[in-house]
Write a structure and sequence with these properties.
three-stranded antiparallel sheet, binds flavin-adenine dinucleotide, 5 helices, Butyryl-CoA Dehydrogenase, subunit A, domain 3, alpha+beta, 52% helix, Butyryl-CoA Dehydrogenase, subunit A, domain 2, 2 domains
């Protein structure tokens, strides 16, 4: 795994370096597996370090560049989270459409109620906008451009849209949105990670504002 360590306390963010640490290295032990709200098919665990000595040749790149390099990696990683959010939002939207077509209330399918139609229209429009922001960031990144602004915009928007669409998906399912017979509750739980991982929505807003104001 890649581990960031402070190699010079006096230098702040310029005193952080990245290391490859192999499983089984003395002093490195797995901690407890987290009991998560969602994304439960992928394990997340604490890792504990106690007197763990890493040879200098396992350092990645130049000493003190770990933080700067991580920020660059996040420019790509955030596009990945945006894509994950778009996929989850699309899945939740499709589950909502399918249920709205099937469920009858007051003698009609609920998809014939304008209240439900408006939810679906908003969801589809937002997912499409999130997808386009994500494609744009990915396209620019593929051209070798620095995409700090575009990656954060895509990640912020797509993740918040996904949380909203998953919420409406549960709502459209009514009581079945709250139980495990349908996928709505799983989308609702899984999607929340996207507004947190690789930097929270608040941090994305900070990054976006800094980028805009530095121009
Ligand atoms: C399932 C899972 C997997 C993860 N996998 C990895 C991984 O593989 N590698 C890795 O490095 N990390 C991983 N993380 C960590 C993840 O990136 C962090 O949890 C996330 O970036 C938020 O950081 P934090 O938990 O320290 O929150 P905090 O920084 O404690 O934030 C708490 C709250 O305060 C707000 N806040 C903090 N600072 C500011 C500020 N300056 N201005 C305004 N608001 C602020 C935040 O937005 C948030 O609402 C994982 C987390 C989870 C849940």
């Amino acid at each position: 795994m890649v581990v960031m360590a402070v190699t010079d306390r006096a230098l702040g963010s310029k005193g952080i370096s990245a290391f490859v640490v192999e499983r089984g290295t003395p002093g490195m032990t797995p901690g407890q597996k987290e009991d998560k709200l969602g994304m439960r098919a992928s394990d997340t665990s604490e890792v504990l370090f106690d007197n763990c000595r890493i040879p200098a040749d396992q350092m990645i790149g130049v000493e003190g560049q770990g933080f700067v390099n991580t920020m660059e990696v996040l420019d790509s990683g955030r596009i990945g989270i945006a894509a994950l959010a778009v996929g989850l939002a699309q899945g939740a939207y499709e589950a909502a459409v399918s249920y709205a077509r099937e469920r009858k209330a007051f003698g009609r399918t609920i998809s014939s109620f304008q209240a439900i139609q408006f939810k679906l229209a908003d969801a589809a429009t937002r997912v499409e906008a999130a997808r386009l922001l994500t494609y744009r960031a990915a396209y620019l990144r593929q051209q070798g451009r620095r995409t700090t602004l575009e990656s954060s915009m895509a990640k912020l928007y797509a993740s918040e849209v996904a949380v909203r669409v998953a919420d409406e998906c549960v709502q459209i399912h009514g009581g079945y949105g709250f139980v495990k017979d349908y996928p709505a509750e799983k989308y609702f739980r899984d999607v929340k990670l996207t507004t947190i991982g690789e930097g929270t929505s608040e941090i994305q807003r900070l990054v976006i504002a800094r980028q805009l104001l530095s121009r």
